[in-house]
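Repro case for the chain-ordering regression, as requested:
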Amino acid sequence: MEPILELKNIHYAYHSPEGETKTLTDLSFSVLPGEFVAIVGPSGCGKSTLLSIMCGLIEPEKGLIRLNGKYLRESTTNIGYMLQHDHLFEWRTIYHNVLLGLEIQHMLSARSREHAHELLEQYGLKQFEHAKPSQLSGGMRQRAALIRTLVLDPDILLLDEPFSALDYQTRLTVCDDIGQILKEAQKTAVLVTHDLSEAVSMADRVIVLTQRPATVTKVIPVTFELEKDTPMQRRNAPEFKQYFNLIWKELNHDA
Amino acid sequence: MPEISAGQQHYLNTRKKHRRIVRASRIAILLGFLFLWEFTANVGIIDSFIFSSPSKIALCFWEMLLDGSIFLHLGSTLYETIASFLLTMLLSILIAVLLWNSRKLSEILDPYLVVLNSLPKSALAPLLIVWLGATQTTIIVSGISVAVFGSILNLYTSFIGIDQEKIKLIYTLHGKKRHALLKVVLPASIPAIISNMKVNVGLCLVGVVIGEFLAARSGLGYLIIYSSQVFKMDWLLMSIVLLCIMAMVLYALINLLEQLYLKRI
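-- result from build under test --
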């Protein structure tokens, strides 16, 4: 199967008057269609930078990125991005927040509006369509943010620690919730996180990065023998701990 | 209607009482001041020729109301203030957007804006008269000059203070800088713009009165200068009272705008 996303020998450094900070060096990996990949690494190793590069927000200094075989610049593949915070705008209703991306891309039509309504209904936010973001709980807000991304029908979804701003309990349920939504929609997704249990509970494959300047040190395929393979079920499975320890060791062996 | 507990009732009563005392005290101070003024002027403790008195001011207002001359002066000042206020808002939003759009431009212009903002603008008024003549334009420009530089700096600061992650969100949705401005920066700055308006309306009035001191044939500022020269203290004090009322009304209008905005969101 052809990879949907391919990164080859990516280099990136931040520059400031005090000097250069090498962030990524010779980083390569690929993602297959329908796959859920989690990227973990020590904090400050440049995970968010990596996502920004994949999304085309910043240019790598060296290396190339291909989407469906085409270079990122020329690619028409639709990339969705979910940030750490929901950033729902308080001056818009939930429905109008969801439409934001469509507005920007001039894709507002009767059909796309209908699609937005459907998604809101499907993910249990129908009754909050006309509510302001502040009237929703943290979990529901994050779900609205996900719909804002999904309504654009992305081929690949980049998730930048999307649960880290939530309290622990909400975090578990939202992680389970969004994991299932993405699985049902058969979306390709790349999740960046520093939470190992989150990575193990959601991913098909975990990519472990080294400290800065980051590169891939290990790729660990994650498979669970479960009837219903959900993040919550995974957390209770016996394999969970083994994967967790394996990744933990990988992360710490150069420290 | 739900049952109100004794504690809650007590709280509500205390609150009501507090409010009543505040309101009554405010009115009492005003009435007391007016009474004291009128009384001391009438019995000759203060010289009513220099200090005037509330009754003389009221009478003076009534006379000018009858011959219609008050409308000319009120109208000029009001027109000039509103014109300079609207132009100030337009200019400062426009320039703040330009500065926001280009970091280079904002860094280059920063020292100039700071100097122009701290310059006492009354020093500019004579210059404006020479340049623009003793016309209403001069007065409007004088009003703008007092408010506009501070307004630009304020708005620009609030524009760049907006959460960068919110702007990143726009870019992740494949938006352009234009979208960041229209979908995030401007809507998020509406509260800042409204509070900026409150400051500007007062400053524009200051600028307009300064302008009228020097370059007008009508308006409350003109009336103040003229009456001080011919020792018509009734006119002078009446103009000051009218300026107070005008400032209050303009401020209240912007407050109303703010209430409307808050209700909508």
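Ordering looks correct now. The domain at 68-264 of chain B is CATH 1.10.3720.10 (MetI-like fold).
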